[in-house]
Amino acid sequence: MFNKFLRENKVAAAILTVIRLYLGYAWFTAGFHKITDGFDASGYLGNAIANPVKGPDGNMVYSWYVNFLESFALPNIDLFNFIVPWGETLIGLGLLLGCLTTAAMFFGLVMNFSFFLAGTVSHNPTDIFLGVIILAAGYNAGKYGLDRWGVPFIRKTAKTYIKKDKAKAEA
């Protein structure tokens, strides 16, 4: 019942727009500042590796994630120094404009969980909660944005290509 409300109701679309704009502004400004002020994730990653999230027994909770940071992220720090600020900026832009909203929110949640797994609590729980609502709402979250025109265009274009591929396969 709540999911139907989120996905189909006009009032929900208006509320989702406010949430979307709030998250979009937060993502956009975080990324934009990293781009303009310079960004280096090596200190953050080094700290996440040196001080992993530990459970009540003192053992690492996400040892697989620490291993990922140590064996992949840190050796490829230049890639992460590019992906993080530009990813945050593009996520913010997508949410602010309501353009590819569900894709932007999905990648925003991936980044939120990545920060969370590295031990940064901050505002991540709130962002994850609001992000899940936006993601669950689907198209309705971007209804008052560019998704109003973009999603139908993408669906129409995809159907056209599928029909062409089926016609080629049958010929």
Overview of this protein structure:
77% of the residues lie in helices and 0% in strands. The protein has 171 residues and is an all-alpha fold. The mean pLDDT is 94. The chain starts with a helix and ends with a helix. It is globular and about 55 Å long. The longest helix is centred in the N-terminal third of the chain and has 28 residues.
The beta-strand count equals 0
The shape is globular
Low-confidence stretches: none
* Largest sheet, strands/sense/barrel: none
Q: Please, what is the average pLDDT? A: 94
Q: Based on the structure, what is the oligomeric state of the protein chains?
A: single chain
Q: Roughly how many Å is the radius of gyration?
A: 19 Å
What sequence of helices (H) and strands (E) makes up the elements? HHHHHHHH
Strand content: under 5%
The helix content is over 70%
Instruction: Tell me the structural class.
Output: mainly alpha
Count of separate DSSP helical elements? 8
Distance between the termini: 46 Å
